[in-house]
Amino acid sequence: MRSRNPVFSRRGFSRDNGYAGFNAAPQAGGPAVGTQPGNPYAQQAGNPYAQNPYAQQDLQYGAPPQAPVATGRMTMDDVVARTATTLGTVVVTAVLAWVLLPVDEANLGKSYGIAVGAGLVAMVLALVQSFKRRPAPALILSYAALEGVFLGVISSAVSTYIADGVVAQAVMGTMAVFAGVLVAYKAGWIRVNRRFYGFVMAAALGFVLLMAVNLLFTVFGGGDGLGFRSGALGVVFGVIGIILGACFLALDFKQVEDGIAYGAPREEAWLAAFGLTMTLVWIYMEFLRLLAILNSSD
């Protein structure tokens, strides 16, 4: 899977990215399809990393091919460490923005302006990284920092003007979705295959287009636009947004699993962290918006 949208898409471990995709998933409880135990460079369909890069050179010199030591490969510890770093950057800058960019009547306009600017730049950085073939840690962490500024100001405004405590509820909701999808994925209740991927992408595309149209009507027509982000429809679309985020978490978990199984380079853990961070930010924003709608209607 390749990058598509800075919010929904993510760099995946597919053929066009040098990794195995859904057509060459590893077998449960055993080595990856097409591999032989103890030989991480055995031939695998659609997995260039499974080939011994030294074999052809050895044959040219008349020597038997020697399998290289499998070092520098992505592990789960790498993914956890990079994800913790990226999410930690988001949280730290969000807290700093909450404290240093007040949303009282005297500073609301200035703080909003900074937050919107940070959010737009973060979106541009996410687009740039999404279309890069190699991860850029500095770019990813810059995105995380700017995204944190945006989230900090928006969260502070919702907490101040709509309902105190919704931020904590949104955080707990995001954590609950993450834990629930992880358990369901590990238990095999969610089967991530090409059909699942196609359905999620089609649903996400429709969702994005509707939200874009609603935003245009809001900007040029005033009010709540088509009403997709307020009232009963707002609640429905908020729930749909959270479900979509949960589906993308499952895709993220599948991509991490495939990357580790097929011996992706260690640096690709940054791409996994990037994708997970964007998905979790999306789920948090949907929770925050949903809770804001529910509390404003009380």
The succession of helices and strands, N to C, reads: HHHHHHHH
**Major sheet details:** none
> What average pLDDT do the residues reach?
80
> Total strand count, please?
0
Which secondary-structure class do the elements indicate?
A: mainly alpha
- Shape label: globular
Beta-strand percentage?
A: under 5%
Give the N-terminus to C-terminus distance in angstroms: 43 Å
- Rg for CA atoms: 22 Å
Q: Count of helical segments?
A: 8
Helix content: 55-70%
Low confidence ranges? 1-45, 48-70
In a few lines, what is going on in this structure?
With 298 residues, the chain is mostly helical. The chain has helices spanning 55-60, 76-100, 108-131, 137-161, 166-186, 194-221, 231-261, 269-296.
Description of the structure:
- The chain is 63% helix and 0% strand.
- It has 8 helices and no strands.
- The two termini are 43 Å apart.
Based on the model shown, name its key terms.
298 residues, disordered N terminus
SSE topology sketch:
Blueprint: H1 55-60, H2 76-100, H3 108-131, H4 137-161, H5 166-186, H6 194-221, H7 231-261, H8 269-296
Helix pairs in contact: 2-4, 2-8, 3-4, 4-8, 5-7, 5-8, 6-7, 7-8
